[in-house]
């Protein structure tokens, strides 16, 4: 076994790998960019080395720097995590040349599976069922269109080098084909440096079911059953589970067998995932699942497999890479119970899932009821440079119902202030009737998106607690106060006070009267309500109102309060009383970067006539592309950025000419 390994990654996965290394008595070496100098993965490691500035191309993707750190620190092997260099065969070659072990498959195996078209051709030859479609060399648009017609619409065009849900276009009719092809080619070229595509039959009611496989350097390969990752938004996984709901035993066996066959076909060593798509238009059937792609690395959602099998997959990776045979044979691997994983992200579901950046002023993860894999701590930044993941929340139960109930409870107990998160959206998914029944397919989220992202009404209690906090009425008075009372509880301050709050864009003056004995009356829209604070320490309140007792948490931020109540988080603004409304004059005439990012595509120039909602800029941030559209019809007055520019949030990108000058243009 290795004595010391380097983890060429950051965030939760770097921390996750270190936990197992520590368990096995292996020393760990972290690498970090300037943005991560005080990150959790750096603090956890036995040693840590700076490898460059924040952008990934200058740090976490620097093969030479990482090899240099291996040599300096004496690390014998490198764990790549997922993302970054994990599926880069050149990295593996460079490590091999330097005599350092890559904890993962061979460069050849990665190359064989790196391109979706070649991987499909290989699997077809190995007798693994593949999605019907075209995946050969010829890329002439007219020829591709004929192929699409033969496959039969709808079809899905995929960039062959694509990943992370990028470079895909669904096409429903022949006359949309060429435009969609161009878009997929462009995305493939700009994101992956490869504009070539493959075409697949688009399945209209599919489930994403993948099989965890493992191989060793002695010719053995096994599978560790399946995961269902059908809950997706824009082809990206949101909640995953294992096993797959309603999976017939015969189909499970067939999928496991096909996955092992795939791994053996390329002499695979280490952890890998064979992704299949199942056509469930007539339910799950053993003859309706098809190979989609192989991910030659540890997958984000590997914990659900660990929960149902009781195996530590990172331990398996380390053992296999150090030359040991697989810890178990196929017959010894069993599973029981059910597990879910939800990906908690700093993103704003209501604003089109825009990544949110900021400081995690307050972070309480449900560690007592769930397995929480996280790479951040309270006070850490969610920076614009990396994936905005806060944590993976993983639960286990004897049955699917129990595990899902625990996931909902864990999400409701999650408290994050300082960054908007998708916790409410994830909780809404847990409450979704179809999902609860196991009736999942990749279109579920899209169909019910509006209700899933609906913000819950703001309860009176949240407003009242925010008003009391804003007025400082919940804080203990000076420490020398003999009665240890709270400010405002004194008779002489029982006068009327007003708290100015920003409630979802509306300013409200909330009147509060202190009645003494920790009692207050608060004037709310539906009348006056009385509140008695029973306990108030560090923002955690137990209160009584209308004869019912409840608890809540209020966290004070720089310009807002976050109230956690009944499993929801409500952000209430504290407007600056002196400032006028925030609306910048003429803001509707400008296109402003909603977050820091890279201007990837600029599709208009000064003087162009544009129409409302016409896409003008594609901004890339946090591994996602965001399309910014024209705010109204008009003529572009100014273009203030160029393709390739890195912009900060709030940067004005384009400005429309004033309305009256449009007429003249
Ligand atoms: P898939 O959806 O194919 O299973 P994952 O969900 O594991 O892939 O991750 C989505 C994509 O984003 C993958 O290509 C993965 O490598 C990449 N990725 C995920 N998290 C990170 C991260 N923290 N840093 C860099 N890349 C990441
Ligand atoms: P990536 O490399 O981006 O993960 P995949 O080929 O794994 O790309 O596809 C990602 C997702 O897109 C799948 O999980 C599935 O939801 C959807 N998808 C892929 N192929 C098809 C298809 N032929 N029909 C319908 N949906 C598909
Ligand atoms: Mg995939």
From TrEMBL:
Q: Work out whether the entry's keyword set contains ATP-binding.
A: yes
Q: Which domain of life is it from?
A: Bacteria
The record's keywords, sorted A to Z, are: ATP-binding, Biotin, Ligase, Nucleotide-binding
> Does Nucleotide-binding count among this protein's keywords?
yes
Q: Which Gene3D superfamilies match?
A: 2.40.50.100, 3.30.700.40, ATP-grasp fold, B domain
Which metal ions or organic cofactors does this protein require, according to UniProt?
biotin
Mind telling me which SUPFAM superfamilies this protein's record contains? Glutathione synthetase ATP-binding domain-like, PreATP-grasp domain, Rudiment single hybrid motif, Single hybrid motif
The record ties this protein, via InterPro entries, to: ATP-grasp, BC-like_N, Biotin_BS, Biotin_carboxylase_complex, Biotin_carboxylation_dom, Biotin_COase_C, Biotin_lipoyl, CPAse_ATP-bd
Q: Which PROSITE patterns match?
A: ATP_GRASP, BC, BIOTIN, BIOTINYL_LIPOYL, CPSASE_2
Domain Lipoyl-binding: from-to ranges: 582-657
Listed name of the protein:
3-methylcrotonoyl-CoA carboxylase, alpha subunit
Organism of origin: Roseibium denhamense
